[in-house]
Amino acid sequence: MSRWTYDEMPDLTGRRALVTGANSGIGLVEARELATHGADVVLAVRKTGAGEEAAERIRRTGAPGRVTVETLDLASLASVRALAERFEDPLDLLVNNAGVMTPPRYRETEDGFELQFGTNHLGHFALTGLLLPHLLQTSAPRVTTVSSIAHTASDGEVVGGNPRETYSPQTAYGRSKLANLLFAQELQRRATAAGSPLTSTAAHPGVASTNLIASPDGMGSVPVLGTVLQLATKVLVPGPERGAEAVVHAATVAAPGSYVGPTGFRETRGPVGPAARSTLARDETLAGLLWERSEELTGVIFSFAGEPSPRS
User: Fold this and answer.
1) For position 60, what pLDDT does the model report?
2) CATH T-level topology, domain 6-208+241-296
């Protein structure tokens, strides 16, 4: 299979994109490539200092797209709402990229949700719903949500939100990534049913060497473990340049409702192509239940009519 490359991206001049977690790793590569192909890109990051450094790195490449930085903490619904309230003008593309991976001990978001479920899924669910009016101001809006091959190891308890009593780092992460995939697919179904032009896609990066592994919100909360794993992955697995390919493909050219990722060894690396979905990921009833529960927990109701989404 020939490898899809960034050179095959369309001209994005005049389009505006927002990428969460874009200050490092695959998020930074995604933002850089979008700007390189003409898009004006908003880096939505928790630490604005790191975001400004990332923006300057992109500008130094000579990318024609304008790059700006916005503060966003997906572990805080107040922060998500604040960004949505500050946001102005149409939005052509939203890339739900940021994430937290396998913190060894149970942790909660500001709103009392388990950290991975609250950050990876609920934060992005709320952000998408609150930015939906801006997306619907454009002729061909797109939302891409980053899942993981780890979703295939998830059980059917995704709607439960990873309770403290049964917390397992890997299981909780798998559930959050299954939630990402179910959300992306349900968003497409609801958009289609409403006659909306919005395209929702999902992607996973395979296994890539990024700062996610050493993050203090994940395995990096145990410093020695995070350092060892970070060094090992840099030697053994592809870097963010390759990991970002599937996400950028999904964000710019993939078909509505599609899920893409690397097609090499067990989908860990290789050319971009269709990715495998677990049986649970294809469960439309489960997707609907997760959507309804997410509305209850976040207070965000999606409206495809274009008016602002309610806020709790």
Assistant:
1) 98
2) Rossmann fold (3.40.50)
